[in-house]
Amino acid sequence: MTELEKGPTGRRRGRGARERIISASQQLFREQGINRTGMDQLCAAAEVSKRTAYQHFTGKDELVAEYLRRFDPSVLSGVFDRPDLTPRERLLAAFDIPPTTPLCPYIAAAVELHDPQHPACQYARDYKKAVAARLADTAREAGAADPEQLGEQLALLIDGAAARTRVLNADAFPTAAAIAAVLIDNAIPSTASDDRRREEVSS
């Protein structure tokens, strides 16, 4: 084996190299941003040579796209797939996000990458549409008169709270959750709201 087939510390190239590269990108992209992270730094953190890195990824653009693809493929399954919560409770649970949570990687990537045709930007658009769709599906379960509109409204609130929390270094999600509760209750016909209140009282 030649020196080119080893990483910076002599670590042998193997089947784990790709995962080490992705793991390094997940850490560095979130800590310091995509544009400030170069391939040399990524290779050093992953303990692979650049030759090995380019055997797994044709370039940084492909790595950025894979980095985003790995995030939350089930679209907030920890919220939307909880059988112990009512649909309304699931909608509100989407706002139960710790203020220390890093900025949404899809928002961060879209801000840094200026090419709308970049594959990572497409992943960001697809993910954001998927979140709004899941919110709309849950709103439909809750009995909302216009679930698509409510889904878009709640998606906008979540992203706005995430950005405001980051910019102000102060938790904006409680305020967003309070606004969401008003939107949800206004969107649900009175009969559905009455049924929900009876369920809450009986539980």
Automatic annotation (TrEMBL):
Which ranges does the entry annotate as DNA-binding region?
A: 38-57
Q: Which InterPro entries match?
A: Homeodomain-like_sf, HTH-type_TetR-like_transc_reg, HTH_TetR, Tet_transcr_reg_TetR-rel_C_sf
Superkingdom: Bacteria
Q: Which UniProt keywords apply?
A: DNA-binding
Asked if the record carries the keyword DNA-binding, the reply is yes
- Domain HTH tetR-type span(s) in chain numbering: 15-75
**Which PROSITE patterns does the UniProt entry name for this protein?**
HTH_TETR_2
Alphabetical list of Pfam families matching this protein: TetR_N
- Note the PANTHER family from the entry: HTH-TYPE TRANSCRIPTIONAL REGULATOR RUTR, HTH-TYPE TRANSCRIPTIONAL REPRESSOR BDCR
Name of the protein in its database record = TetR/AcrR family transcriptional regulator
Report the source organism.
Streptomyces kaempferi
